[in-house]
Amino acid sequence: MNGIEQLCPNCGLCCNGVLFADVELRKGDDIQRLDELGLSLEKKGRKQAFAQPCTCFDGKLCRIYNERPTRCRTFECGLLKRVQMGEMGADAALKTIAEAQRLAEKVRGQLRRLGQSDEQLALNRRYAQVMREPIDLSGPEDAAELRGELMLAVNDLMQMLRQDFLK
After folding, report:
1. Cys-Cys with 157: which of 1, 101, 103, 132 at CB 3.0–4.6 Å?
2. CB 13 within 8 A of CB 165
3. Cβ count within 10 A of residue 11
4. Is the pLDDT of residue 1 over 70?
């Protein structure tokens, strides 16, 4: 088994809205075909992009893997690269993935507790929505504390993503 077969079906962070908020299409991507396959394309400046979480990701695998966009085809996270180069074993990488997923779920849980439950938005966009809201000092006593816990959880997740997945 290669690194992709071992890690990617157990991860999905590049497709589920944790690592990226959107993916820009590249020259040569067949926009019409990708639209037909179910990608929700939108304009992003002069380029076409699709929002994360990807509508073609089933939670484990890409439904359009053989016809996926160029960015998806060429992206390899730092963890996968280290496994492929023999710097890290697959078992250690799977433990890192599990920890990243645990941290992401902790952030999702805190976002839900703060009223942001739109699972169709990327994690960073959900976080931004919550943090844009003013703190209601006359509201529930734990609201400010929950936001503080959310900030710490996002910090922990971002540090891990930068260190293990985005290098």
Report:
1. 103
2. yes
3. 24
4. no
